[in-house]
Specification:
The protein is α+β, with helices and mostly antiparallel strands. The protein is built from 8 helices and 19 strands. β12 and β13 form a beta hairpin.
Length: 304
Amino acid sequence: MISSEGGSTADPKPRWTVVANPAAGRGRGRRALASTRTALAAAGIQPDLVVTRDLAHAREAAADAAGDGRVVIAVGGDGLIGAVAGAVAGTEGVMGIVPAGRGNDFARSLGLPLDHAAAARMLAGARRRRVDVGEVDGKPFVGIASVGIDAEANRLANAAPPLPGSAVYAVAGVLALVRWRHANFEVDVDGTKSAFRGFAVGVGNAPFYGGGMRLLPDARVDDGRLDIVCFGADNRLRLLRQIPQRRTAGHATNPTVSFRHGTVVQIAADRPLAVYADGEPIGALPATITVRPGALCVLVPGDR
């Protein structure tokens, strides 16, 4: 039984739809789907099941289910989770997550179990929590939108052969660094403009990306604002050494790294650059990034 926010009341008979990508995470998606169906059946829940063909299909299925006020469970990686979240946001639907990808960064940001079986067992006794949703030129995302070397590393990671754990992100980061040439960025945060030459800009609603790197250490999923990080020009070898430090936010001590926060972020550069969010391409520069406070209702552990 799902508790409402604060845990004071409950919806006794919510209807459920599972939107799943069994191919996610080198077989984890298939195992996660089996765990989800087993856990829900044990709680007396018989969900509808949609096996996705692609992210567009996932958005369509999630939008249909959310429009009926259903609980929509996303079983897959951050790309699928971001697609489902964007479809559920702003509706009467509720979203649940069973992480089954390589990064699982939004689940990590919510404090969800990263083991798919534990995440599935949590669903029936979860409580509802309101969180924010970001948008890149109107396209929703829930984690971090990045442009520059981080987006290039994301592209390379998506195209890479399977590697264990988050190793694919480390390898992709090194390859992106070798190939990178600095860009001139212009960043406007709530009307305050700045310019710099360097590596990247990240704008997020949540702290994690790249399989557990704490890129935005002060970001919160429900504070109604966006956090911004800018990586200025630096020695490539020093930047390479700092990549592992991002897991503990060690990059925050680098004088070429700066942080800001706001609600409307406009980014431009001196050459065409793609914007990636939730592990997928979402747009291109110039781009405007905004936040929708409390737009998504998501299931989290009942004791938090």
